[in-house]
Amino acid sequence: APAAPVIHPEKPPIPTRVEIPKEMTGDYRSCVNPVFSPDGASLAMFLSPSTQVDHQIMRKRLCVLEVPLVKVQGTPPVRKGTGFAEVRAKVRYFDPIPPKGHEDRKGWAKVRGPPVWSPDGSRIAYIRGTGPHDPKFSKLFLVDIPDISDISDIPRDASPASTSAGATSPLSWEKYPPVSWEYPGVSVTPKDYEGHVERIAFLKNDLILTQNAEGCDVKLRTVRLPPPGVPIKPSQSPGIPVVVQGVSGAPVQWHSISVSGSTGNPGNPGFSGTGSLCLLGSSPEHPLEVYAADIRESRGGPGLVMESICRITNSNPGLDAKPRPRQEVVRWKSRDGMEIEGVLMWPILTGASEKNRDSPLSSPSPSSSPSSASSLLTSSSSSPGTSGGKSTCHPVDTCHPLIVVVHGGPESHCRNEWLTTYSRPGVLAASTGYFVLYPNYRGSTGRGVSFSQADQARLAKEQFDDLLEGVRHLVSQGYVDPSRVGITGGSYGGYASAWGATAHSDFYQASVMCFGISDQVSKSMTTDIPTEIESVHWRKTIEEAYDDYVASSPLYYLKRARTPILISHGANDKRVPPSQSKILFNALKRKGDVPTRMVLYGKEGHGYKRYANRLDHSLRTMRWFNHYLRPDMSEKDRRALSPPRAEVDYGGTQRRRKSSRGLPKSRL
Fold first, then answer.
1. Three-state SS for 293?
2. Which end of the chain, N or C, is less surrounded by CB atoms within 10 Å?
3. Quick one: pLDDT at residue 384?
4. What is the pLDDT of residues 312-321, one digit of tens each?
């Protein structure tokens, strides 16, 4: 807190518990993201009805409290048996909650915290979705915070009829019309903006710096506001782009911004046209690193200029001597004509293949005829970019296998940056001769709310066709061998991998499914986010759309399954329970003609945190693809090929093997 309580110097500080008036906030009692105002007199936070994950995601509302902790003489009274001092706060602002009879989902939306105070404490900015069906917090919202006052006189079920005409309380229905509880605050991001706001920072009371996802890139923009005291109105512009000067080489994608004014004080009360930024940045050349930059107002224009950009850290200097693959944004048309984009990582080429390193994907050289597997990826008349329905694969030295890496969510996206993690092979695959495609299929973020909602109520349909059309596009360019295509991903990407091994088994020759979904019916009843799934994915309950849930389950297409699949899951996953992997594994083992293996990681949840497990999964993933994506292998040979041995070689010494005793055991 910028201004902590002033305790008597001879007395140690006492932790203080702040009581939130229940009569004002109703059932909203769980607090997240608390932030003190610049003067330390108020506390902004988000409240939700409970600590349930569903409530924390979908039902947060902004609350501002006046906390009487500005000055305490001596030691504050301590409640007996607790060790805490206790104060009762006054509510300064609270997002209007639905009146009785209207407690439905209309006022729900995803909110990203923490709230951000303006330097003078008169405004709060935060990022919020546009409504209950917006799958991601996407717009910049602002709230003018009234002067400190107690509003406990307004009952929870306040309505225009029950509130006095002259009421001036911040929760008065005179200020907030009866429908305002659906969309509290003012959005200053246009509805049709084709991007998502990700981070925000106040530069001045009337100037905000935003970090926006736009396609596969990140843009910094500035948003001008009216002076304090003048009502905020919806904007028709997402903001003025910040001019970035002095960045050479691969593009840097920003992940976090921290601003300091000319006085160097956090919160920027001294920003007067010049200041400094601290940023986290990633590029195709390196993972996240710390950057510093100067920022100033543009000469002769309303925007800002970022210059003197300097990389501060080099966390892995060993990368500097390693070759990195060529990486670029690619675009293709899906079956219905929608444009899809993604990031393509080229194989690290050596020898005879090096001559094609700079060849554009749009300039193929026709060659051999397709095999039975490749014909499915090259003969579809509905796939734009193909060449007369025939494969245009280059000679062997330039025709490479492909791994499709599908991101989770689906409300997320891949940027043109460092994309290698334990569940995304990336450079590991490129260094052994693979193309790697990271598609931002429909339902992804970064292209506006409409695009992120394009998959809703139609899970696994057009969105997974987008993946196939991306593969067809690359095959048509002649650099990818259509008979050697693999797919992997985690969470929703694991769902896509399971789909690729069953419903789309004709198109993929190997699959690695990480904590993915195999049965939508049982998953909807066992996940920790059932409400969020119904609101932003299905738009219907399972009772209303049971047949759709079944038809969107990979398990439903078990008869089609022929693709060898490696399955991994965390034993403590609550988001996608491990039963999803066990169901598919047991079904395939009973089917008997599909090579499969499952690895269950103990003490892991939704995603793997332990480095030993990450290493194990990475090694198993590449070994699986190398095993089943060999050149000149027929489908019959592939299905007859037993999986690699269950044990993994971690580096050779007996001591290392003993240290890996806690690593998972593979189910055979």
1. strand
2. C
3. 30
4. 999 999 998 8
